[in-house]
Amino acid sequence: MAPPVPSLTTQPETALPNKAKSSPAAAKSSRARAKPKAKPKSAAKPSRARAKAAPVPKPPTVLVRQARKINRVLAELYPDAHTELNFNTSLELLVATILSAQTTDKGVNLVTPIVFAKYPTAADYAAADRAELEKIIQPTGFFRNKASSLIGLGQALCDRFGCEVPNRLADLVTLPGVGRKTANVVLGNAFGVPGITVDTHFGRLARRFGWTKEHDPDKVERDVGALFPKSEWTMLSHRLIWHGRRVCHARRPACGACGVGRLCPSFGEGPTDPAVAGKLVKTGPFS
Ligand code: SF4
After folding, report:
1. Which of 11, 71, 145, 147 stands 20 to 30 A from 62 (CA)?
2. How many structural domains compose the chain?
3. What b/e string do you get for 251-269 counting C-beta neighbours within 10 Å, with b at 16 or more?
4. How many angstroms is it from 265 CA to the middle of ligand 1?
5. pLDDT digit string, tens, across residues 59-107
6. Catalytic residues
7. What is the domain range of residue 102?
8. Could you identify the atom of ligand 1 that is nearest to the CA of residue 258?
């Protein structure tokens, strides 16, 4: 797995006005028809839509260079980084990602073969017997909430999207149990649409690298997205999550055994002695 550019979202949140080309004559005629007394309703306060479209300040070049260098080294360290959830279809990935909340990918992968076999389509989730579904997904924790999300998900998909998983962020986030993180996982890994997945590892590493000071996932996504081309977003997310799971732990990061230690402004946050740090590295598997 586990992630951002002016709007810093993977899909525009509001439709842009259609700026069709027009001739000077047409423009003149249009101005002549326009009612001169029509005043903007709120000249002082910009609308919310306009505020959202405000350009994000460009990050300093030195930060961009350092960030991209770290990404290149991580790409060498983890050439096959990928989501550690098992899935075959966009629906399966969506379900697995919902089940992965507050638990490990490994735990989810133990349960999903049963779930996917019993509920192969969105309609199957919509019609699921709640008690039966809860029992199956119980090992993943928060099973009552997750069962509600999955049943609601199936209903919403069939009611509004022809029982198919939509491939737009704006649509995905309207589904029960689906926030930006889940939506970006599905977009990036099932549809090939670049997305930044800000989970706990991604946020922590982005702060340690100095790419953001934010804790709010949307703001982390915005700040990190401004440092990288969109084409890197999905793989960058996988690499940070892999590095966070294996080396750069929340408590006692293995700095002395870290492949990006010489580039990291937080080097020294964990043990720097290679022998001590080496013992902190986790090798997985995590799935
Ligand atoms: S040097 Fe330490 S803090 Fe920086 S990425 Fe490596 S393990 Fe994490």
Report:
1. 11
2. 1
3. eebbbbbbebbebbebbee
4. 8
5. 899 999 999 999 999 999 999 999 999 999 999 999 999 999 999 999 9
6. 181, 199
7. 90-190
8. 6
